[in-house]
Input
Amino acid sequence: MSSLHLSRVEGQSMAPRLPADSFVLVMPWPRWLNLRPGMLVKVYHLRFGYLVKRLDHIDSLGYLWLRGENDQSLTMEQMGPVERDHLCGVVCWTIKPD
Amino acid sequence: MLYQALSALDKRIKLPRVKAHCDIPCKIYDPISAQLAVLTMIRMVDLLEELSAKGTLTANEQAQFSRLVAQKEEHGLKVKEEVRVIWGDYFKQPQFEQFPEIHDLAHGIMLAASAAKQHINRDRALELLNQVNRFAEIFWATKGVATYTATCPYPPAEQLVYPKLA
Output
């Protein structure tokens, strides 16, 4: 599991909630803590690398399904299911550009 | 204030990046890939017809025949994929309003590509080329780029729509 860390956001798919160049503080999220739809999460996606997205739902097999904040985002279907093990953490604080 | 401090920190230690990117926002679209794929299909048809004219084929020629058919099929799929991506990702409301025919044209290309895949028939492949050329013309027009038509300088030496970029 990764530790508490800062990351810088690239891209506009999470705007306006998270504009490009925002900073996010990512908190590790142990398995015993529940994830809730709507949470901002950082995941490692096998095809797209490190992504910050909103958690849409968790399916019956425990896979995470993610979505962006606007229609420019990769769609949930394009991203596909993400393994829970690939969750890097939950965004607990955001700092947007001034 | 805090943002500026973090930006300064980021410059010094380069914080990890996390992508919130769009559907690969490269904005690189060009119908030339579809056009070249159709030319390949036409070329495959020409080569297949040359082989067919021989009557009986040796084992090597039969293998070559299979390869040519496979390539024709593959490039038929490529035409469809390239056109679908441009139509689906690049074209938006302003372009639709400018060229309302684009929906019918894109659908026509899907059908024509299937027909060209299903047969070893030059006319069907040429019909596909006409439609893909029209698609290219419209694509460049939406970008304000004039086009011209010229014979491609390699087999199958068919007419292709090119952008006037200079």
User: Anything to note?
Assistant: DSSP finds one helix and six strands in chain A. The radius of gyration of chain A is 12 Å.
